[in-house]
Amino acid sequence: MGQPRDTTAATGAPSNERFLPADVLAQWPALREKARWIYERLLAFYGMPDWRPHYPPLEELIITTLAQNSTDRNALKAYQQLRERFPTWEDVLRAPVEEVIEAVRPAGLGNQKGPRIQAILRKVWEEQGRFDLSFLGEMSTEEAEAWLTAIKGVGHKTASIVLLFCFQRPTFPVDTHVARVSQRLGIAPPRASTRQIRAIWEALVPSEWYYPLHLNLIRLGREICQARRPRCERCPLQPRCDYYRQQAASPGAEETQS
After folding, report:
1. How many domains does the structure of the chain reveal?
2. What contacts 24+ positions apart, CB below 8 Å, involve 177-180?
């Protein structure tokens, strides 16, 4: 089990403190210890996730785009329907946008995702002359993320998923599950943005923990720490969860987390 890298200066503050909320910095040593506890507790509860094979980078980017505001099942259904209707990426790029929208409709928000997919393919083709994102592996993490997020509709979460899953880069994707769990636990403030939550986790734990912690937090959010009716009685993190303590202190309080 890896040791957290030294992200603190003599003052105990993380080296990237300018990106972090002030209330997070105020309790930094305690948060570092709590993050380690969360990581180890989830490993004991769920085990170490296997580094499962993922799609090639371009395919991963398209599927992740389809998964925005959707479920993995519907995103994969839309992806399969897209590939069945258009055998090559060139076919997708040259197709009338209305046909692409119809093909990806199972993922929802087809009017946004259809044009977005064509924009991705257009940028890749115009800059590389082929439908392949392997060149990102030759860039620094910052350069690769900047290239991806320059595409309209590709945000930091989508870019970090591609970079972590496909290139094993030190990025920590934050989806709605990770954000919700992080805020309920007290790792991140209630109003923290996903970009801030990502910065917090990236500073709190060593990069070799990113992949298993990301997947285990998602699993916890899906199975136990659900948005409307969290199953706190089953949660392995209950002993140090701020949300649970607040609910226990105020019986009958309405769910306010999303």
Report:
1. 2
2. 177/217, 177/218, 177/220, 177/221, 177/222, 177/225, 178/214, 178/217, 178/218, 178/221, 180/221, 180/225, 180/227, 180/257, 180/258
- Contact between 41 and 219 (Cβ < 8 Å): no
Q: What is the mean pLDDT of residues 192-218?
A: 96
> Same domain, yes or no, for 162 and 223?
no
Domain containing residue 38? 17-49+172-248
Is the Cβ–Cβ distance between 124 and 58 less than 8 Å?
yes
Residue 50, Cβ neighbours under 10 Å: how many?
8
Distance of alpha carbon 220 from alpha carbon 127, whole angstroms = 40
Residue whose tokens read 């603190």: 8
Predicted confidence (pLDDT) per residue in 124-144, tens digit: 999 999 999 999 999 999 999
73, pLDDT greater than 90 = yes
Tokens 């303590």 label which residue?
245
Positive or negative torsion for Cα 77, 79, 83, 86 = positive
